[in-house]
Amino acid sequence: MSSTSIEPIQVAQEATTAPSLLALFHDVRQHSLHITEALRPEDQTVQTMPDVSPTKWHLAHTSWFFETFILREFVAHYRPFDPEYEYLFNSYYNGIGAQYPRGKRGLMTRPTLDEVHAYRRHIDGAIAFELSQSDDLPDWADLLVLGCHHEQQHQELMQTDIKHVLSYNSRGGVVEVLTDDTRTAKAADWVAHPGGLVEIGAEDSSGFHFDNEGPRHKVWLEPFRLCTNLVTNGDYMAFIQDGGYTRPELWLSEGWAAVQQEQWGAPLYWDSAPGQKLGLEAPVMHVSFLEADAYARWAGKRLPLEAEWEVLASAPQLMGMHGKVWQWTNSAYAPYPRYRPASGAVGEYNGKFMNSQMVLRGSSMATPTGHARDTYRNFFYSKDRWQFSGIRLAEYQ
Amino acid sequence: MSSTSIEPIQVAQEATTAPSLLALFHDVRQHSLHITEALRPEDQTVQTMPDVSPTKWHLAHTSWFFETFILREFVAHYRPFDPEYEYLFNSYYNGIGAQYPRGKRGLMTRPTLDEVHAYRRHIDGAIAFELSQSDDLPDWADLLVLGCHHEQQHQELMQTDIKHVLSYNSRGGVVEVLTDDTRTAKAADWVAHPGGLVEIGAEDSSGFHFDNEGPRHKVWLEPFRLCTNLVTNGDYMAFIQDGGYTRPELWLSEGWAAVQQEQWGAPLYWDSAPGQKLGLEAPVMHVSFLEADAYARWAGKRLPLEAEWEVLASAPQLMGMHGKVWQWTNSAYAPYPRYRPASGAVGEYNGKFMNSQMVLRGSSMATPTGHARDTYRNFFYSKDRWQFSGIRLAEYQ
Amino acid sequence: MSSTSIEPIQVAQEATTAPSLLALFHDVRQHSLHITEALRPEDQTVQTMPDVSPTKWHLAHTSWFFETFILREFVAHYRPFDPEYEYLFNSYYNGIGAQYPRGKRGLMTRPTLDEVHAYRRHIDGAIAFELSQSDDLPDWADLLVLGCHHEQQHQELMQTDIKHVLSYNSRGGVVEVLTDDTRTAKAADWVAHPGGLVEIGAEDSSGFHFDNEGPRHKVWLEPFRLCTNLVTNGDYMAFIQDGGYTRPELWLSEGWAAVQQEQWGAPLYWDSAPGQKLGLEAPVMHVSFLEADAYARWAGKRLPLEAEWEVLASAPQLMGMHGKVWQWTNSAYAPYPRYRPASGAVGEYNGKFMNSQMVLRGSSMATPTGHARDTYRNFFYSKDRWQFSGIRLAEYQ
Amino acid sequence: MSSTSIEPIQVAQEATTAPSLLALFHDVRQHSLHITEALRPEDQTVQTMPDVSPTKWHLAHTSWFFETFILREFVAHYRPFDPEYEYLFNSYYNGIGAQYPRGKRGLMTRPTLDEVHAYRRHIDGAIAFELSQSDDLPDWADLLVLGCHHEQQHQELMQTDIKHVLSYNSRGGVVEVLTDDTRTAKAADWVAHPGGLVEIGAEDSSGFHFDNEGPRHKVWLEPFRLCTNLVTNGDYMAFIQDGGYTRPELWLSEGWAAVQQEQWGAPLYWDSAPGQKLGLEAPVMHVSFLEADAYARWAGKRLPLEAEWEVLASAPQLMGMHGKVWQWTNSAYAPYPRYRPASGAVGEYNGKFMNSQMVLRGSSMATPTGHARDTYRNFFYSKDRWQFSGIRLAEYQ
Q1: Of residues B319, B334, B316, B314, the one with CA closest to residue B377
Q2: Which residues from chain D sit within 8 angstroms of residue B166, using beta carbons?
Q3: d(Cα A58, Cα A50) in Å, to the nearest integer?
Q4: Residue C183 domain flag
Q5: Cα nearest neighbour of A196 on chain B
Q6: Hey, which of A37, A142, B58, C43 has its CA 20 to 30 A from A371?
Q7: Are C346 and C146 spatial neighbours (Cβ–Cβ below 8 Å)?
Q8: How many structural domains compose chain A?
Q9: Is the same domain home to A155 and A203?
Q10: How do residues B302-355 score in pLDDT, each as one tens digit?
């Protein structure tokens, strides 16, 4: 799975007819298989930590999403592929029912990968059949688009999780995992914003977005600046060489505890592939919020707020906010004013995670292209490092 | 330690002379002993969970604060009471040096309580001597005031921690712990605020405040309302009786996990004193943020933002914000714009905890009276329940 | 993998020529593949508890044994299949070097099953080539016989481990696992022995045996009786129905703790295949020593000592000691008088486990036929239940 | 609590009248208080690991034993001191009822030490009153003698537990704990025994002994020799200096695992009192079975069997078997032939611990003198090091 072999498809925002919707669905589904092509059944079975899910599970769960929220709900006489899958591949939807324990997904040897592939084909066929019956969009068109975006999220997670799984093989590099060796063409610079009353968040009338991206609302900002470049491996190396991981005054309390308990001394994966050459001009990635925050303090700067990030990203001022690494912000993940989750079990998608986590903005090289939005709110815990997460600096003027 | 026997002293905001500073210091120090009067040495030794510290440790640590930041820094020829105490009673100041492991404070049998009392007297005498040498305020007057406020914080913590320790004795009620059986005189009502651009945070020029309360800054708010009353035990009982702890749709994901793993079914301590009569009109307390949030969702409301709370508390609109229970907000604990911690080790006081925790506002019946401020930002983890923490509801207009 | 499909081969005790040794080697190696035939790569990758190893690992480790102790030691110019395998597939031989952590064997996705099969073929070929060069036995003939017995031990472990792995699939019975539904033809009876001075243990001059089976030595026994039958599922059901798992007076202290902590209420697997019919006359299996001991106490009997078991098994008195289930004894695993482990790393095979474990005697339906011996000493911890372990009662006369 | 200040009393084996029984009881009870004289309430409250009990708990539990098995059973109208104590101070007698969790004994601040002392006086008075009513021995005389021996066992445990608790104070030596600096007068020598059929175990007709010491029975022994001296600190130092803790070939598998996981590099407490001078000629103590076994292997010897130890100890051949350190044997703790525990709850005293532990023989300097017997079977887990446990070597002739 080399980075060059991935050609993420573009999710059409405007699938206004059933055939165009089917084309979207088809492209998204194919891409998941494309990502996993080079992996053996053994690679797709294992779970190396509770946060990681086996590839096989991702492939099944994304199918379960279409089956549960569309086929079972809207298609008369639909026969589930296997009644037990409702339980096995439910991630966290209490509204649907009990779930197979998350931490034990790697102990599930059956269904096998072949059986999961058959499950996927069953779902693909059932959806395709329904969409072929009329040119008009079905009632559940929005849910299908949501399911496509959901699968795209899991396409990125599959790649982060595979990278983690393969790193546990004592011999690295059995499968080429996603890295970035692009060079940063231009010198770092700063773009200023005068602050004041701004608006962020997705309009209801805009194209597809997750519920947590709205409602659009006002925020007051102090005058600030964002750096035009991402922090690079070379920049981060200077932090390490300056004793970054040995100086408690640079760290949040949780960060210093993690440094000691987890024996952090570099971003995740730096040590695991000793032969691999680190591109000094490529963006640093696989750092936690705690490391990003320590780096910023060391540099005499800070992490941006999510509103600062969004207001500059959506202005014609700043390029390169997307497609490299997700960027930690110093904003806790919380509901926007008057936020309301969707009704029903699908309302559990985003809302119930709105505490204790931090927002990341942008997108990474593992994000399917059409999946990125300026209003997108990704979120992980302060300690998480296995995502394609990096750093962009900010400061007050 | 009955609630009536506690008469918290008033910290003079304006200790403008050495004698007035000494009076302040004297009163604060005496109050700590007053709180622990009814406790036996055994009660003051034990640690029932890592968050809890033994009373004996609190009594020593608050003395250590004065010794470390004032006597050792500013008083020539000062001889530490015991060189080992620097290590034993350092809470979390990496700038000072290594710390005795927090989770093992309850395994420290020596120094004994008597020895800790002797340590306190040693510190009291040394500070008093220095303050008696001149009517002028010494260079370290600000640090002494900080140390007094620090000790007041620990006075509240001592009471929450003692309550937890005594709850582990199979027989409850050996020592009367702090409860509130006041009746809510008036019916619940709502006070509205039009929103817009407001200012919150402490002015530099105002009286004493912790560094995390400033700088004062602008925030944009949507029109909102706060409830004039705190949620009562009776209100919360209705939530329980309506299946509140059995309905996942009411809970954040972390909340539902805690309900199942920790077997939560009521606020902390409701079960531990079966004979104790629960005052239905008294404010509910010992609920976590996760429970407060679930209650608010059940009630069709939400928790206030800290800016909403402060702007109404500081207006002449809403009474009773203080002195009963701390009130969970839906604001994550984060630095205000342009926040800078104090320089030196004392800068670790607040700043390094600014992630993953939630802000509580107000004060409780255990808070020394003069210690409460409208700008005060208390903070704990979403799961914490052993503080005197309760609920005030909010809603958008 | 049905029980009928397994036809264990007979290890020739008298492989006196190189060709006969090759035939033995060939048969043992083939049998391992035969056992795993019905399993998919996913089934062979997973580890459900630290005691369990993935099938794939067993297949590789048994090959590693021949490579490490024979090919690398005795064959000039032998080129290891893969230098990293020395580390990956070393079970516990410190004399060879460091070992991949036992509890993480299930996180190793590479080498894949196909690669492990290639490794096996490489070893098979190398050994076969060496044995074909002369009719005389090579210097390492004894080690090859040891390696064959070693692989036979793992053939049984593969079956116990596979049974455990498949039990974690929510749907039982995807692969038929080893069970015994034979009927106990005759009524239980007791065979008496007068006690006195007896001899047990393997003679040096007898056929193959592990080092822990000797030296042969004298033991004094009190007059005793052994039951001719194994305890059956029906017998054990009576124990359960009489409240066996709820009466602390029947249990060793560790047993009662396990009942409460592990929620034991029946032998392992009784609950996991609800549809499966329990043969009431078949021997109970998958009980721990702690359960076997509690059952014996309930029955007013006791478990045999290993010397009692052996002296009756090797006399022409008692039939049916082998081939159903291993039988827990009340003898701790300890060295016989003047026991000396073999020299070199292979000396770690048995000796270093001689504390804290209990001896089991006999053999099970999963034991390759020629692998069973009356002097054989199997050993597991008191709590272990995933082996094919059952109960034979004893009493003093 | 210096070693010289302890003058253990002699339990009269022949208390044939009520007054002599009372004198025995009085002496034993007084000695417990004598042992704890130098300790503060804080020292007596804390529990540093689950195996350790607070001194306060020991003082109460030994009183509970008399109350539960004598006063409540045999004394009409006896009023328990406190009904809750039945639960709080029951160690492990399921026949009596539920028990306060062992691992939480250190969280019990109430009853205070003063209250426990009052409890002791209450029990002392009640027993004394009953014994004063007649010169004849009461029906429960045997239970009272058992209770006295039980308290003597706890007198030794109090000292091992106190030593552990005080070792957690960062400053060692606040209270002088039991050490031995006696010199070994004579050079090590070996005493031979021809083996053959011997008898061990306590006769029913002999004086007081615990049920696990009988019945007396025959054992066959090979010719062997025991060392006349205990292994000294100097001997053990040579083992360490020869890389004893770094050579896996010297260790049982569990031993090597403990060395790595627990970071063992010397006997317990060697590091904790750096100023303390180690008497090189004093017996090594605070070693686990695993260390004792590794030392013996390094020395080219082995640990004795318990029968070997007893047969030489009870012959007029070998002096110095008692009063220094308990000596690990290579015998697992198991019932002697035809062993039957006493009936009723007191039958749980010994029998239910008969698996997974190793026998120690002899007695230590902490053992009350009259409490030692050649037939005494002490038992602990292979990893336990906090007892006064040492090493005597053996070998086959």
Answers
A1: B334
A2: 109-110
A3: 14
A4: no
A5: B218
A6: A37
A7: yes
A8: 2
A9: no
A10: 999 999 999 999 998 978 899 999 999 999 999 999 999 988 888 899 999 999
